[in-house]
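I'm stuck. Protein, please.
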Amino acid sequence: MNVLTNILNNLKGDKVVWLLVSLLGLFSLFAVYSSIGSMAYSQRSGNTEYYLIQQMVFLLIGGFLLYRCYKLNYIYYSKLAPILLAITIPLLAYTIGFGNEINDARRWLTVPWLDLSFQTSDFAKLALIIYVARSIAKKQDVIKDWRSSFLPIIIPIVLVCGLIAPADLSTAALLFVTCLLMMIIGRVSLKYIALLIGLGIVAFLIIYTLGTIWPDFVRIETWNNRITDFLQNSDGGWQIQQSKIAIAKGGIFGEGMGHSTQRNNLPYPYADFIYAIICEEYGVVGGIGIIIIYLTILFRCITLVTRCPMTFGSILAMGLSLNIVIQAFANIAVSVHLVPVTGLTLPMISMGGTSLIFTCISFGIILSVSRYVEEYYRKKLALNRVKDESRH
C-alpha cells in the first residue's frame, strides 16, 4: 500500500486522467480475455492465455512509452514535428505500394529481422496532429493569412489523409475531422476551413475515381458494400445483428465476466465489436461506464486547454484527446448501428499492437502537457506568495 501511495504522490499531471487510463487498460485485459475464444480455438488450439499474455505485454510496452512521453517536456514534440512528418509521407506511400495485404487492405509494414507488423496510419495520426498543433501555434500572429498560415497547414493534412484513405478511409476521415476541429480551436478563419472541407471532398472524389481504375489499391468495393448495408438493410447486416443481440442480452447488469456467447458469432469481437461484448457481459452499466470514461477524458483535456499558457500545448492536448474520443464514439456508434461499419478499434481496450501503443503515447503526451501546466501554476502561486510576503 505504501509503494502505491508513493507512486501516486510522485506522478504529476492530471490524476484523473492517470486513473482513467489505468481503468481502460484493466478493461482491456478483461474484455480481450473474454472475447478471444473463437480466435484462440482457430489459431492456438484454445489457448486463450496466449492472447491474454500478449495483450499484457502490449500494455506494459505502452505503459512504459506512456511514462517516457509523460516525463519528456512536451515542447520537444514541437521540434520533432517536421521530422516525424518527413518520415510519415514516404512511409505511407511505401505502404500503399508494398505493404502487407491483410483482409484486402494494405495498411501494415513488417519490421525487418523482427517479423513484427505495424500499421503506418497509427504513426501518421500522431505525426500529423503534432505537426498541425505546431503550425497553428507558430502562426498565431498571422493565423488569418492565406499564404503564410493556411497553406503550410492544409497541404500536410490533405496529403497525409489522402495517402491513408485508399486502404483505410475511416481512419483518414477521423484524422481529417480532428485536424478541422484543431483549426477551429486555433482560430483559423472559417472561410479557410470551409475551403479545406471542399478540398477534402475533391481529394476523396479523385481517390474514388482512381479506385475504379486500380481496385487493388483503393477499397471502393468495401466502401460501397458498407454504405449499402447501412442504408438498405434496416437490421444492418450480419455483423450489426449479432452486435445488437449481444447488447440486448446484457440487459442492465450483464451476463457476467467471461459469460459472453455472442463472442462466437461476432466477427472481430476482440477488436471492432469489443464494445458489444462489454455490454453483453457488464450490461448497460458497463456500456455507459465506458462512455463516461471517454467523456471525462475529453472534459479534463478541455479544462487543460483553458489553463495551459502555451498555445502549442493546449492545441496538442486537445487534438490528441479529440482523436482518441472521436474514434471511441465511432466504434461505439458502429456497434449500435448509428453509422456504417468502419473497422475502427476501441482505443486502449481493443486487442492490438501498434494501435494500443500509439494510444498510450498520445496519453503520455497529454499528461506531459498536464504536468507542465501543474508546475506552471505551482511556481506562479509560489511567486505570488513571495510577493505578498515582501509587501508585508
User: Anything to note?
Assistant: The longest helix spans residues 354-391. The chain has 14 helices and three strands. The chain has a mean pLDDT of 86.
